[in-house]
Amino acid sequence: MQFKIYTENNDNSLLLIIPLVGSNTAEILKEKLNGYSVNASLFSGKKDTSYQLELNGRLILLIGLGEKTDSSSIEKAFRRVLSKNKELVDKSVSIDFSPEFSSELIESALVGFQLGDYNIGFFKQKKEDQKDFTDLEVNILSSISELAQTINRATKTASAKIEGFKLVDLPPNVITPEYLASWAEKQGKTHGFDVKIFDQEKAKAEGLDAFLAVARGSAKAPKFIIMEYRHPDAKSHLGLVGKGVTFDTGGLNIKTQGMVHMKSDMGGAAAVLAATQLIAALKLPINLTSIVPAVENSVDKDAYLPSEVIGSHAGLSIEVIDTDAEGRLILADGLSYLVKNYQVDQLIDLATLTGSSVGTFGYECGALFSNSDAISDALREAGMQSGEKVWPLPMWENYRSEMDSEIADIKNYHGKPIAGAITAAKFLEAFIHEHPSWAHLDIAGVAFGDSEFSKTKSGTAFGVQLLLKFIENQL
Asked: What residue numbers bound the domain in which 41 lies?
């Protein structure tokens, strides 16, 4: 898409979009439509409403956002434009923002507008009448002074989120550990960050034994991906780890239902990869080290066994109770490696880790665990601001004993139908080498799911804007 800033005197696009927020909808409309009024019974600006009309040969789309709106709501409302109203759009479109729209709200609107062009029909044959909005001209009218900067941010944010969508939505015969490694290297060259890839031999030399154990059952070679973004004006160093299980059969504890959706088990990796792309693209003044342990958890003669005792980068021995509790094993090595090799001030991991978190929060928010009130509060606030909400659960030490093993230092699953998300977090805590500012985000219920924009479950890129807001709030 090509975004342009325009004035009322030089725009002639066939479709004009007018978003409305606040209580004086009628007055704003009269001004925008040169005295023409719309009956309030047809359109009053109520949230999640829209209305189409033709005026002087021009098509006009009114978008109601209610008396108060937020970034998440406006993004969704604008995503509907291209997702559900493609027939209204031809070669150009104009969006007229009233003074009620801050730069933040305009950014969210433009992000959402671009997301509307995304669909998951990657392998469908293209129809002759299928519209392509690659060269769509989008004219923007607003009184804010930093409009060009806002458009630039929105474009980069939308690009990162779309990558986050794709990484989850593409099938597991495409999204392999090798694919993720190649993706990281390509983005590193494009956006200016360094990338290191450990193959099996290098991972073994580095002591990443838990990571390698999960990979044993797959024909697809694992990749331990490290991304290093550095900024000369950085005053802090953030470490991210994302669970990158490109497909999860459950291993020998094979899943008995829902396996078709397990291409989504790298939702944490998708968030970390896309967030790294965005942070580098925006050139934020921060140092960032991101790690994605990428594996496929499959089944063959070499697959790791329930009751095995395996090693780990941290030096702790792990009794494998359940091979379907594999995500915490690769995260354990990722966290340990990051803390031991990089001096990060804050440490965050993201993972589609447990069904227990979904049982607690449903599909409304992610589960937040932390050993620091400061980072926990900062993430919770960033979540409320971005619309990617996370909420804390306790990390009391009494839960740690649930992970005690008779034969090893720790076991990977307590085997009980209670406190599953909490005990998983306590397992991970054992591998952070007592880092004082760590947070674990269990995003199993929010990284992939049903939405109005797809007929099947699809990726959400949950975590990308949460991390962006978290970082920028501290700059």
From this structure: 2-144
C-alpha distances out from residue 417 to 375, 420, 429, Å: 29, 7, 21
CA dist list (Å): 19 to 4, 22, 48, 56, 321: 18, 10, 11, 20, 54
Q: Residue 338, SS3?
A: helix
Integer angstrom CA distances of residue 235 from 226, 270, 380, 439: 21, 26, 22, 20
Catalytic residue among 328, 380, 411, 469: 328
Find out whether 164 and 270 touch, Cβ atoms under 8 Å. Answer: yes
How many other C-beta atoms can be found within 10 angstroms of the C-beta atom of residue 131?
13
Catalytic residue among 30, 86, 255, 400: 255
Active site residue 328: yes
Are 173 and 80 within one domain? no
Q: Are residues 164 and 129 in the same domain?
A: no
Q: Do residues 53 and 9 share a domain?
A: yes
Q: Report DSSP state, residue 323.
A: T
Dig out the tokens for 118 from the structure: 């995304």
Tens-place pLDDT, residues 197-251: 999 999 999 999 999 999 999 999 999 999 999 999 999 999 999 999 999 999 9
Q: What is the CATH number of the domain that holds 221?
A: 3.40.630.10
CA–CA distance, 275 with 314 (Å, rounded to integer): 26
